[in-house]
Amino acid sequence: METGITKHDLIAGDDKKVEHVDDGENKFSSDGELEAALEVDDEEGRRILTKVDYRLVPVLSLLYLVAFLDRSNIGNANVAGLTTDLGLHGLQYNTAVTLFFVPYTLLEVPSNIILKMMKPSRWITILMFCWGLTMTLMGLVNSYSGLLAGRFFLGVTEAGFFPAATFLLTLWYRRYEVQRRMAVFYVAATLSGAFSGLLAYGIQNLDGKSGMQGWQWIFLIEGLIPIFLSFFIWKILPDSPETASFLTQRERDYLVNRLAEDPTTGTGRVTNKDKMAKGHILAGLSDWKVWCAVVIFWGNTVGVYGFTATVPTVINGLGYSAANAQLLTIPIYLFASIMTLIFAWMSDRWQTRSPFIIAGYGIASCGFIAQLAIPHPLYPGLTYGFLFPVAAGLYCPFVSLVSWVANSLAPSSKRAVGMALFIAVGNMGGIMGSNIYLKREAPRYTTGFAVSLTMCLCAIIMTFVLRWAYGRENAKRAKILAENTEEEIRARYTEQEMLDLGDKSPFFRYTL
User: Fold this and answer.
1) What's residue 94's pLDDT?
2) Where is the chain membrane-spanning (predicted)?
3) What are the strands, taking DSSP E only, across 408-479?
4) pLDDT, tens digit, for every residue of 322-355?
5) Do 31 and 49 fall within a single domain?
6) Nearest alpha-carbon partner for 254 in 34, 509, 15
7) Are 30 and 55 found together in one domain?
8) Share of the chain above pLDDT 70, in %
9) Are 511 and 352 in contact (CB under 8 A)?
10) Can you say how many angstroms the Cα of residue 231 is from the centroid of all Cα atoms in its chain?
11) In this structure, how many other beta carbons lie within 10 angstroms of the beta carbon of residue 139?
């Protein structure tokens, strides 16, 4: 006899009693048998998580590498002759770099709302095909206005990917598991700098082939990659633990249950199955702590977007050839990748975020101070050497910050909006970063390094502020629990009301 009640209903907190549940794979005669079926030992739990890791993280990492490659390859194209061939002068190159961020920042929140309403795999596939097509067509531009149009529509089509991918990761892992996975995903962006330099070095050899310049080949070839991938990703990328076809029903139920009962969020239950509502949108947009995190994010985006678009030119200005300048970017990004992974592993292991954010920006600050102090280009080796702490210090705290924001927002609909807002407004720092490395200041780039240093210091200060705010709120909730029993507090709410409270629940605990 069909009851209309699934195992997920019981896992999610439905206290109805049933005599029979049929999921098409297993039959249970009682709740007790169901709970017994969900008991998983540590070894099997690790096996299930490893199975998810191998399916989800490499796919998202590959996609992010491709996305970051396409948004930042204008720096490689510039070294390959873009500015000369299009007759750019003054701030026109900076304007082209900047224009990307206008639609990119404005469309991230709407994109994540759409993501919450449809399958992530389908939405990400649509975005991939569109940005690949845009990048390919940029290889055909022959004027400044054409370059501006290409950068604008690249911003439109890439806007939704990063917030969608980071949100998708939070649907699969507990709060002190997600940063390690997110670091592997984000390292793809760091490695894209190295891969972009290597790929651009090779593509430049096509200069003059079929009547196209080297920079045109860079846009054309690097645009065809996401178009090709889009034909497969919709089938490969899993959407959520509840619907993952590569898992058995037992494995799906185990993942859903362990996420709902994540002990590191406090003693309450959490849910990722809530439906997007107006209240979630308003809560995500109005949370002041998200806006504080934006300031911390600016420490990253101001430096990173200016750095990635300019570092080949900086190295080129130290006396290295254009081809060697492309190659010399590779060790810098490899070092930053290693540091990012180390920070993420330590942050999850110690179950804290803010110390690693402060440490990262501290390292970057030391690198920027050195760049300002060295008399360029008298010591090219020393100048090049201090690009390493700049890159490492900018990249490694970012994953801790994204994980910190994700850990602090619940339920999932509020998290989707809050994370998109955080990333959208945070990426506006890219507008500043794209305009502070001035061509007339080469090779010293005093304005660029000084502004980046200032933003890193502001990020450190705001991290201390946010840590203090979260700590004070945790103390208030601990006091409430000390003065009232858990049963007395729960009696004031229904189970659904408690879930809807999300991070406002007296049982919820913020990460420090």
Assistant:
1) 80
2) 121-140, 152-172, 184-203, 215-237, 288-307, 327-344, 356-374, 386-405, 417-437, 449-470
3) none
4) 667 767 878 888 898 899 999 999 998 898 999 9
5) no
6) 34
7) no
8) 86
9) yes
10) 23
11) 20
Please tell me the distance from the alpha carbon of residue 159 to that of residue 464, in angstroms, as a whole number. 30
| Amino acid identity at 471 | G
Q: What are phi and psi of 31, to 5 degrees?
A: -60, -35
Residue 383 forms part of a structural domain = yes
Model pLDDT, residue 5: 36
Of 442, 136, 400, 452, nearest to 293 (Cα)? Answer: 400
Q: What is the 3-state secondary structure (H, E, C) of 324-390?
A: HHHHHHHHHHHHHHHHHHHHHHHHHHHCCCHHHHHHHHHHHHHHHHHHHHCCCCCCHHHHHHCHHHH
Asked if 260 contacts 270 with a C-beta cutoff of 8 angstroms, the reply is yes
Q: Kindly indicate the confidence band of residue 134, based on its pLDDT and cuts at 50, 70 and 90.
A: very high
177 and 111 within one domain: yes
**For residue 305, what are the contacts with CB-CB under 8 A and spacing of at least 6?**
72, 97, 101, 429, 430, 433, 434
What is the tally of structural domains in the chain?
Answer: 2
Q: What range defines the domain where residue 135 resides? A: 42-504
448 in the same domain as 312: yes
How many Å apart are CA 84 and CA 483, to the nearest integer?
71
Which tokens in the block code for residue 16? Answer: 């109805």
d(CA 108, CA 99): 15
Q: What is the pLDDT of residue 414?
A: 86
Distance set, CA 183 to CA 61, 226, 270, 398 (Å): 9, 22, 24, 9
Helix residue spans in 118-213 (DSSP H): 120-138, 144-158, 161-170, 178-203
CA distances from 229 to 118, 195, 262, 363 (A): 20, 17, 34, 36
